[in-house]
Amino acid sequence: KQWYQRRVAITAGGYHADWPHGRGIFVSNDEKFLMWLNEGDHLRIISMEQGGDIPSVFDRLGRGAAAVENGLKEVTKRDEVYMSSPVLGMITCCPTNLGTGMRGSVHIIIPKLIKKIGFEGIDKVARSMNCQARGSTGEHSEVIDRVDISNWRRLGYPEYNLVEDMIKCVNVISQMEDEIED
Length: 182
Prior knowledge:
By secondary structure, this protein is of the alpha+beta class. Helices cover 40% and strands 18% of the residues.
């Protein structure tokens, strides 16, 4: 119900009035870089990979975002191609992404912790560290053996602080999992 109400509110803005036309996804050959057009925002740039090499993921994201921005500047002949505000930061379709617009996340396998304190307990720990927990396949999904941990702050903080929040939270939750006896 909450998901539906959110979609109705976003839809009222008309950003995807031509649904399903004018949307799509680009996936790189190695499936580590994606650009999703007109889903929850006009443009979602995704960098991901298996393992824990967060600097590599973040570097790829930065290079990809710069390439998209430079390409748009070349095509439009404008100095600024993204809508932004000196107070709010990046302006996005989804109000929860105002600010940096960045959500860094890690999927972490923690079956013992899920069993011991449940998803709500994990989310409580995450929120105390400026992060949030999501289900095994994303927002509002079922929790099976893993949880998506991500920063929930976007507004008023630089990207490196948001990535630091996520890393610290994942390390604490991982340690909690490791301390549980089998």
